[in-house]
């Protein structure tokens, strides 16, 4: 037990991301169950026009609260992405709500149609706790997601955005500022709050 504790402290010192991934370790089967849950929720809403009550085998990890985002892609292009930064819902419920929001309420896209259902792929991102950072250069690009806040404006990029776009750190943050409706270099303004977070993506 003492060895395990010391080992976890060692990991925390060098990688809070690793600690987070240990805490929410999911098997491949569990990941597929959650992706299936998201797709079934969308399919059920398309047919019944109501928030579905889908049963999922009870597991402790599914009942824990996490921030979660669901990303939908069609032909490798974004088709919707919405979620919850804070851990306000149990994981399975959060995935259902995020999937429905991404499919039908993302303001960047028209609501998903039934004929598109078999053309979309689903990606789930389970978020760790937000950590306020005092120096934007400390962000672990591609490993951490980022949330910026300036007054009433805020926006978020998941970790995978950096890899998908090929942006360097300044480009990543600059485009995040634009997404929030702010100027490109707002991340350099000391009044801008910057938060990073780890995520398990599958």
The count of DSSP E runs of length 2 or more, i.e. the number of strands, is 8
* Poorly predicted segments: 1-14
Rounded to the nearest angstrom, the distance between the terminal CA atoms is 31 Å
Strand content: 15-25%
Radius of gyration, taken over Cα atoms and rounded to an integer in Å:
18 Å
CATH fold assignment of the largest domain? Glycoprotein, Type 4 Pilin
Number of domains: 2
Helix/strand-derived category reads alpha+beta
Would you identify the CATH H-level superfamily of the largest domain?
Hypothetical protein ph0010, domain 1
Count every helix, treating DSSP H or I runs of 4 or more residues as helices.
Answer: 7
What would you call the shape? globular
CATH top level of the largest domain is Alpha Beta
